[in-house]
């Protein structure tokens, strides 16, 4: 059962997050349809505890206490641990092997893996590194990390052919990145291992930073047959995992 006073505090946090220039007690009360007298009491308590700031015009802002708490939480979050149930669900639902990876220089490091019993053999193991330009996880970073960082990273790449389908040069990679940004996911079509097809999606944290990517891999023919299911499940998992890490997608 929800506690009204706690709900009001959380609604005030959400409201002020959307108003960086601050709001008065009257504006907050009218927006949330609360009595000004009771709202003022909550605002003063939040201010006294350091969760809100108040300026000379009696406008309230999010306070430094929230920043300290956020930094503590961020330092304690184990992305792999939070991602584990999502990867397990994907593996069971899609019946394919699923991965979690993070960026390290020009490579992807696999930090978690859920292996399906019928999975094809792959040399991708926890702790191993693979180039960003020919892996689904890596291409997800190139497509969805800030464009300036992606551009700088792409310029430093050396394109080594792992298979006949490995991306050959920067121009080809740029074309792929452009398509992936439109689609909302990245694809590795037999570029790192023959016969292996992969779909990967970005994961964001509470600051809106892309901190990881998740992927699912399997035999191309099998993956293409269930592409629509794979895409939906992967995008849903990415949304859920990002939300679990504190990410709130801005509505356009």
Q: How does this model look, in words?
A:
Strands 6-5-4-9-8-7 form a 6-stranded antiparallel β-sheet, sandwiched between helices. The protein has 10 helices and 9 strands. The protein is α+β, with helices and mostly antiparallel strands and 252 residues long. The chain is elongated and about 70 Å long. The chain has helices at 4-17, 25-32, 36-48, 64-76, 79-94, 136-144, 147-155, 170-183, 220-225, 227-244; strands at 23-24, 52-54, 59-62, 97-104, 107-114, 129-131, 186-189, 196-204, 210-219. Helix 2 (25-32) packs across helix 3 (36-48), helix 5 packs antiparallel against helix 10 and helix 6 (136-144) crosses helix 8. The mean pLDDT is 88.
Topology, pairings included?
Elements: H1 4-17, E1 23-24, H2 25-32, H3 36-48, E2 52-54, E3 59-62, H4 64-76, H5 79-94, E4 97-104, E5 107-114, E6 129-131, H6 136-144, H7 147-155, H8 170-183, E7 186-189, E8 196-204, E9 210-219, H9 220-225, H10 227-244
Antiparallel strand pairs: 1-3, 2-3, 4-5, 4-9, 5-6, 7-8, 8-9
List keywords for this structure.
252 residues; alpha+beta; six-stranded antiparallel β-sheet; three-stranded antiparallel β-sheet; 10 helices; 9 strands
